[in-house]
Design goal:
4-stranded mixed β-sheet
Length: 98
């Protein structure tokens, strides 16, 4: 299996509901891997075409906290999502409502 440099091949997954790129939690369900948004609870599937050849014959594989897109046609593997490097969005709340 050929592996691309993770810094070059990394694509950022965004929530389909609110567009957020932070606060996403990866999960596995009946139809495969997906990410759930902590802000709007929308589930976004982790699937895509191959970044090199554009083939639809790509699948998501998991290694520890990283999710890779593996192409069955050209054999290229690229990082799709990583739980480890998810930035945390800090929200400040005022006590004015009390």
């Amino acid at each position: 299996m050929i592996e691309l440099d993770e810094t070059l091949s990394m694509t950022t997954v965004a929530c389909q509901g609110c567009g957020s790129r932070v606060g996403l939690t990866a999960k596995y369900g009946r139809y495969g891997y997906f990410v759930e948004c902590d802000f709007c609870a929308t589930e976004t599937p982790l699937y895509s075409q191959c970044q090199c050849c554009g083939s639809e014959e790509a699948r998501i594989i998991k290694r520890k906290e990283k999710y890779y897109n593996e192409c069955r046609d050209c054999g290229i593997e690229s990082l799709r999502f990583s739980e480890r490097f998810q930035p945390v969005e800090r929200r400040s709340y005022s006590n004015s409502h009390l």
